[in-house]
Amino acid sequence: MRPIPAFARLRGQNLRPRAPWTPQAGDATVIPMKNLHRVEEPAADRFEAPDPEACETMLDVRAGVDEIDRMLVALIARRQGYMHAAARIKPSRDVVRDEARINQVLANVKAEAERQGLSWAIAEPVWREMMERCIAHEFDVWDATRV
Description:
Layout: H1 6-9, E1 17-18, E2 38-39, H2 58-89, H3 99-116, H4 120-146
Antiparallel strand pairs: 1-2
């Protein structure tokens, strides 16, 4: 029997809330989010693959990438669940696309990317595309539940 992957062990019980994100000076487009409970990044010992700095072979690198991809799929699936909730909650199709919220998410992600050392050249197009796909999905769900 295979051991439980690290990302499965993380589901809820080992995660600690982080202080809510607060806007920084100069973040003109930031709209602070209410009731934001961030989750600490998993401790390195919760990953099965070696840390990037410890990789010695391409097998090590690929094991790390595959492990992270599994975690990302789980997180994006959860994010999609919130799009279903939004489609259920929003009273009008007119409010599915929310430009202020898009800008807020981008500002939040940019601040977090800078904090984590993630290149904005990688993060920005990933989040923009993910948000566009999520909005399209939310429209589909909104339409399907109102027919």
